Structures
1.
Amino acid sequence: MLSNPKSEIQNPKLGEYQCPANLNLYDSPDCTRLATQAATGRHLQVTSNHQASAVEVYLCEDDYPGWVSLADLDLLQPATVPYQAKLFSEFDIKKLLPEVIAFTQKAMQQPNYYLWGGTVGPNYDCSGLMQAAFVSVGVWLPRDAYQQEDFTQTIAIAELEPGDLIFFGTPEKATHVALYLADGYYIHSSGKTQGRDGIGIDILSEQGDTVSQSYYQQLRGAGRVIQSYEPQRR
């Protein structure tokens, strides 16, 4: 009996797939709110949780979960080679930091706005920009700001060097992240209500403008990227 291609799309087999094009992942099977994005070439695992309108997946590189709309399932292709994390030493990463910084500065020159869940240019959220910048040199970070804070090596603000991450938020949790440049300045993607509605540069000081002051009041600390993320879910 011939298989039904439409049925196979709606009920994909469990396993690892690749994205031949940029793909949106949502935070629920309703597929109304963006959770993250998967750039062309990323790997994902389809789980057994299939709903009427979407299929639950998680991205292999950072273990991030989400839902793929049934309408987008035809974008997925079975992975011919399983994802394998690449290892980096702290020394390797330090040499790559100028390229990481250059990525964010180039991204800032493109027309952009703040997009919740955005990890594929030109529109990013805060942690999406950090993840994309490091991925541009092959180094993976976890997806969200609080996860990036936990993943990095904690450093004092006085020890900040170009390429370090700065975290903002509440005493309980990091809700925003930026990349340190030099001389007290950092680059980040910030929202409409408290920021630039896109990528901009601010100063880590209570003497800055309204946006800089607002973030400075939420300063939590800083972290240094000394390794590339290794998936935990296989």
2.
Amino acid sequence: MTGRNVTSQPSATAFVAVDPTTGAPEAPVVALSGVSRSFGPTRALDDLSLTVRHGEILGIIGRSGAGKSTLIRCLNGLERPDSGHIEIEGRDIVGLSEGELQPIRRKIGMIFQHFNLMSAKTVMDNIALPLKIAGWSKAERRARALELLDLVGLSDKAGSYPAALSGGQKQRVGIARALSARPALLLSDEATSALDPETTRSILTLLKDINRKLGVTVVLITHEMEVVRTIGDRVAVLEAGRIVEEGEVWHVFSDPKTELTQSLLSGVRPQLPAYIAAGLTPDGRETVLGVDLTDPKLGNGLFAEILERLPAAHFLHGGIDHIHDQPVARFFLTVPREPAGLVDEATAYLRSINARVEVLGHVSRPV
């Protein structure tokens, strides 16, 4: 992999927030420019630049040690970069004193992996705590907490203590607390990784609903690709402190450009069956092709047309999926190498319909 930044091309449905008054694109909620942060000889962030648009959900993915935790700590001001600029709603927070950072931090809500609730306080008091610190009156805190409990579906738990709650309920309280001061930005640090799949789905549905209702901007730090696939608008792939690929979720997930992204997404994209992959050789009578294709006509007969146009090809695995209402296909074919030219013809046709085609190897006999 080259390590260069790869940006997917925008589509007609690209997420662009606009000012409702002027119709002009809104300024980003977050703008990072040339941000670097080192810990001794280790460079956690390396000249990183990134923007997060108003009202969008941005997922940031990468392997352990890629710099995700350092990035989120820089965003909320807990970590100071060695160089670069971090703007939150147009204000550069780099170089601000602790006192100057406090009003900025109130615009940023944090959702944690292990909830971080105070066990000796009730659900209502946990939600109201940031407001108490901010100087809200007791009546204002109570009203806001009740409003948020209704939003997250826990109106009957106001007087309960965290120990009496399930993991999903604790995370709902954590989300309500993060929203208490009406933040412009919500940072989610592996918020669902401690939850079971069913609870994870309910939390993701809640986050998407909050994003739509309140217009709050969300940054998801996660190693769970399905989380980003489910609710993300855009995704950025982090490696060694740099963004190596970014774009709309449907585009990156359907056509990842870098080896790292392909590896990270292997669990949520069709893969060549293991027994076939194990039998691939440098030569053989049949060529195995991996094909990625995004086309609005996929659901209207294009897939059948492909197989009709390639009568010598044999379908191995894969199919059509939908990501954010965009039809995407990933599938695998074998094409005979004889008579000569069949593989080239098949590849040329597939590329003529804007498919990405990769020769994966060969098998000695039809699969």
